[in-house]
């Protein structure tokens, strides 16, 4: 597949992406486990069909020590026994937060309450922002048909 735009050579895209990446840095200081945030990014990217983000975040998670079993089961987290209750709550929030248009009320009160049992307000804010930011990246990549498979962990560190 050929990309519709070369995102890394487009000055307006690079300028905008630096701002989105900067917003994501606030989340990096969160007390939410890094693994949980990566799982959230992977699940939202699966829902949105963003091969580039799935490639990046599965490789980043593996590089950080995540197991292949947990990475391979993200799409079927409800049936998998390898996730904590907190991770399951974050994955459920990621699904409803990504599929806002599928439900008239957006994220249900039940899903929010379940997440709030496991995360404090600061952590919830970090998860919500992670979901919003990965959805932004997903949309850019999907619309411009960015190919996947060649990502190397740390490849885009120069944009931070």
TrEMBL record:
Pfam families: CMD (PF02627). One of its GO terms (molecular function) is peroxiredoxin activity. Residues 24-96 form the Carboxymuconolactone decarboxylase-like domain. InterPro entries: AhpD-like, AhpD_core, CMD-like. PANTHER family: 4-CARBOXYMUCONOLACTONE DECARBOXYLASE FAMILY PROTEIN (AFU_ORTHOLOGUE AFUA_6G11590), BLL7811 PROTEIN. This is Alkyl hydroperoxide reductase AhpD. It comes from Actinokineospora fastidiosa.
